[in-house]
Amino acid sequence: MYIIKSLKDGKLYFGSTSDLKKRLKEHNSGLNQSTKSRRPFKLVYYEAYVSKEDAKQREQNLKLRARALRQLT
Fold it and tell me: Model-level pTM?
């Protein structure tokens, strides 16, 4: 599970992957359609999990919390 921040607009992106270095390169090279227009990115946080399911669950939980926080502000 990882969080990257756009250096263009400051927005955060939450994701999960088994190869963080490769995934960050994909984000910064424009291979990911959902983040292509917000390049470049820097890694701001990550957590390692043994289980892919646990990583996805944590990612979803953080996305929900971030969404709720944006609605409050």
Answer: 0.90
In this structure, which amino acid lies at residue 7?
L
pLDDT digits (tens, 9 = 90+) for 55-68: 999 999 999 999 99
Count of structural domains within the chain: 1
Q: Is the separation of the CB atoms in 32 and 67 below 8 Å? A: no
In eight-state DSSP terms, residue 26 is H
Give the pair of three-digit tokens for residue 50.
């043994």
**Within a 13 Å sphere around the CA of 6, how many CA atoms are in the beta-carbon half?**
14
Please name the amino acid found at residue 8.
K
Amino acid identity, position 3: I
53: containing domain: 2-72
